[in-house]
Known about the structure:
mainly alpha
Amino acid sequence: MESSAARPQVIGARIIPRNRLHWRHLVVAVVTIGFAVWVQWPAWQDIYHIAISDQDSSHILLVPIFFAWLTWVRRLRWRDCRLTGRWWGVVVIGLGFAVSHFGVRHGMAVFWQFGSLLMAFGAGISALGTDVLRKFFPAVLVLLFLVPVPATVRQAISVPLEELCSRISQQVLEVFGVPVARAGNVLIVNHIKVEVAEACDGLRMAIALMILVATYALATPMNRIARIIFVISSPFVALFCNIVRLVPSVWVFGNCSHSFAEDFHDTAGWLMLPVAFFLFWGTLRLLRWATVPVTPYGLSYD
């Protein structure tokens, strides 16, 4: 006969397993993750310093917001999470320590920072198990963007992007009848040289837009194919928006005062991210209006 201790609790029509997670496990997770962060505190300080001082890594400041958003929209999954596979946390902590030590020993900051993040992941798994990782995996995946992109990788992408943006901007300006010359990544309008530098190549917005679009796609009822298409297309949308920003900026630099052109360029940069987001949002609404299947199930307004 089955003992009463092994029987699951029954609440209404739902069967609640004995090993389900409770809020006290979440408190333990906060404490253990906090301890892992404290052990690697210099690495986390370095990530924060890079985020607030390097504009190309400013997307890091958005990651906690998107993590909270993805966690909130999946909050009901918490009641079905079970306390299983906690021993994997020890494995991840050990792996994170090894990666972090490798980074310190060889002077490679990206490994030092990534190893610190792995140790925090491992601490969370040790307290909550692997089931919560599976059910909240999209939110956890966004946290990988906390690791700053190495400068060598960023520059390897930026250089061809600068020339590509310069070439496309020149062609667009010529279509509108604006005389413009190009020398590499420098555009010349009215004898004024406008350099398409790293801040104008669109990479900064592409990374932030990829995080934003991935978060939106994972937080919105959408089938897998639609999500993949949205995420893959985000860098191309970022390039398009960057050209939309760059073309009038070059014209303003060639025809207005330098201070006004700088203000226009900065303001346009801030506007492009919400513009890109509304492009994706409008595309999704248009597909739904056209009854193109983008959701895994029918919605009431379809």
